[in-house]
Amino acid sequence: MQHLTIPEAIAGTISVALLLVQLALLRSLVLAELITLYAAQSLFVAFISLAVGITEREWDLIALAMLTFVAKVIVLPAYMRRLSRDISTRVEIPERINVTLSLILAAAIMGVAILTAGALPLKTGEFLPQADLATTLAIVFVGFLVAILRPNALAQVIAFLTIENGLYFGTVTLAPGLPFVVGILLLVDVLIAVVVFAVLVRTLVSQEASASVDVLQRLSG
Amino acid sequence: MKLAAFAIQAAQILTVAFVSPLLTGVIARAEAVIAGKRGPSIFQAYRDIAKYLHKQRVKPGPSSWIFYAAPYIVCGCYVTVATLIPVLTTFPLPGATYGDILGGAFVLALASFVTAIAGLDSGSQYTSIGVSRATMVGVFVEPTLIFVFFSVAYITGTDLPYAMNEALRSSAVDVLRPVHLLGLAAFFMMLLVDTGRIPIESGAATIEFGMIDDARFFEHSGPEMGLFKWGSSMKQFLLYTIFVNVLFLPVGLSSNGEFASVGLAIIVLFLKMLIVAAVVVVIEVTYAKLRLYKITEFIATGLLVAVLATFVYVIGV
Amino acid sequence: MSLLDGFIVGIPAAAAIASLVLASRHSRPLTACAGLATAACIVVAVLQTSDRSGDHDALSALFLLPIAIVYGAVGLYAHWYVIAESPDGAAGERYRREFLALTNAFALVEVIVPLVTNVAGMWVALEATTVVAALLVRLQGTAAALEAAWKYILIASCGLALGLVAVIVLYAAGARVLGMHYSPEWSSYVHDARQLDPDGVRLAFIFALIGFGTKMGLAPMHTWLPDAHGAGPTPTSAMLSGVVLSDAAYVILRFAAIADAALGPAIAQRMFIGVGLLSLFVAAFFLLQQRDIKRMLAYSSIEHMGVVAVGLGFGAPLAIAGALLHVVNHSASKSLAFFAAGRMAARYETREIAGIRGSVDALPISGPLFVAASLSLAGLPPFGIFRSELMILTAGFGSPAWIVAAFVVVLLVIAFAGITRWVTATTVGDAPESIERGEHGTLPIVGMGLGFCVVLGLGLGVPPALQTLIADASSLFGTSR
User: Fold this and answer.
1) A171: distance to nearest CA of chain C, Å?
2) How far is B248 from chain A (nearest CA, A)?
3) Which residues of C57-94 are buried (b: 16+ CB within 10 A; e: fewer)?
4) Total of domains in chain B
5) What ipTM describes this predicted complex?
6) Is the pTM of the predicted complex or chain greater than 0.90?
7) Which domain holds residue C36?
8) For residue A143, which residues of chain C lie inside 8 Å, CB to CB?
């Protein structure tokens, strides 16, 4: 039973908060809530990036944290809210299986993630080494689950963005020495991906008059 | 004056038995006051139980001896659990070695089971609906409680309630660990479910179609009804006790068995419960009752939080 | 980065920017020239590397070749394609500009992948190819194109997310010996391979194979491939099949080299054989029941990527050399096949196999070229793919996993049956009266002709420079270490 220092304890709590937000994505069926959850998760990730940057004296992490905050907490959610107002007429998104079952599946998937990360003795630094890979994998896997179980275009986009959040968390905590350029490119890539998604979603809605991806099933075989 | 162990044990049981209606009364009064009404007296629950004890029994057609024996068994179970958990003292009393916290959970489950079959025994539709809903709820609640107990047991290294209390008291930092906080959140959600408050059922009003817990003894009357109502209060008191004394605020308990400190322990316990009750009341007036099938979502969320607590422990946060 | 690299990257970049700015009647020939110029620079770089005088290692140079072949031909082909397939009026000009700019940009990001030496940079470049390709696939604007683009970007991005996990885990595995802050050059990983954390390297390779295997088209992550190739524009399909698949294979190979050095070759080999066989199986059976000519070619891509994976799985030097040669052969043949199929689809105005009859009659050059390319893909001599498949299978039968080689033969025969069935359905006989005869445009013919020369040439004999290159590259892997 290791005794943690206060900064480690806070970082640990925020990592758990990240996971909780990811799971909360499955609980909600309203797009506006999903966007808010994503903004909250980005806030936590930016905070952790800032904390690691200050502790390890990596100035690029601090810069990335601020950029993340501006881009993912303020700009992107605002853009997505506008997008969702433009495209959808209904408030609730459909679901493939009911919420209860998806929550239980999420618990199982988290178990898989923990097992995969397992007892990997990856010593990468003072910030919660064992927890980070497990948390990253858990966020990524649950994000996949959300994308599978919510057949709405914008919901799948948000799921993908939360996966990128989890990956950013993993980069910051497990690989803080990755070049700054990579971090910037990751962020830019997210922004570009969202723009591409937006183009596709607008086209989808204008053609199909619905943002449900269930109609995208013509090509098969 | 140092009390003998069995005297303290008796005091423990008497506290659970006789202070629990007071808790019920305080909660009912607080809800009404916050809603802007005057509300019943805080001793109303005592008067209600006394009233029932003097009323006439009515036997529903197809019922058997189970129907009559149930309330006595249920109250017996609750009294037994009262001996297992640390209500007043930090040191284990003679009855405490009969079971650990899982044993306590099983005894509580026995009480639920007996109530359920008594309800079915009466053959009425309302009670049957209540029993089936309560069983559905129980399917999720039991594993959640077990996960919560396990996650706390991971931290403290034991699942004897007295030892858990001891371990948590000695290390305040452990209470703030994410594992523990998640366990607390999950247990609180289950507390809301098991004591039948918003968002599961409306504690203040009697809405037959929405009743889950209270519907199970709808057909009982007279002294049996009084015992069931008393049993509900006792169950609420016990769950609150587990929440504050084992999980949340394990302070204020008597460590030396002196008469004064035991008396103080009763008062401190009640005050701690009032804190939790305050939160429950605020939730009660703020939120609306969930639709029936969304109740399972709520409970599944609680289960997920409890499972997350265990995982978070395993990954070492 | 040397001056030559500067050209290789700069020419497509300049062409992309120019296509955005200039009118399309200027940027069409510009794209064609850019393609040929880049191809020439790459050939020079390859020759330098095989003399061991360049500053790339053999694997990078080898994987630049597919781009040379495909981009060179695409530039010429697009000259005609952009006119034939664009809508009329002002929307047409926008379509043409967007298409040419995106195609050049696509070539730019594709060419960056083999040139970066940084594991994380490779990931970024692959992610960039996903984004650009998705924009290209949806360009047609049809419902099918939209669905294909959506599935593609979602599945590929999720796959690349797993790929990034692989990069992160590898970084963490290396932190033990390389410290917390280091630049993840793949060469430093190979250099210190024995000291890397073995569990971390194994996990990283698994994630890399699944994640980047999504972009490579390995089953069971292949589901985006048939849609994207079928519904997208023909030059895009050629570039996707010819280059992106091989770029993804390149990244997986880098991870495999690290895994081989750190853990021994057995682990990576077993996994390669597993996914390779599954891909072959899926492709062979789906090939038997195709209705769309470009989807058929897409499944053929999956089949050939499976062959590459199996070749890498056999592990013997001959097998690895065969797999590497197969990548180059496949790029050449597949792009030629797509070009010819594109011309057929444009002439008959449908992609359905049932709608195309007697294309040898209607298109006297494209038709026979399609037959040749398809036979090449089916594995017939004297084309290149026969040679590389022979190398792989010879090594396979000589290795302990000979039963796998037997399965591969059976599946290749099934795939052969599928391909030839559809090819004969579309090419043999007389074309319907309503279809006009003759070829339009000379540049696409030239492009396809050049492709055919490569396909035939590699089949008749492998140039010594290429042989040296392949030998050097395969020395990085497997049991030859």
Assistant:
1) 6
2) 18
3) bbbbbbbbbbbbbbbbbbbbbbbbbbeebbeeeeeeee
4) 1
5) 0.85
6) no
7) 1-116
8) 161
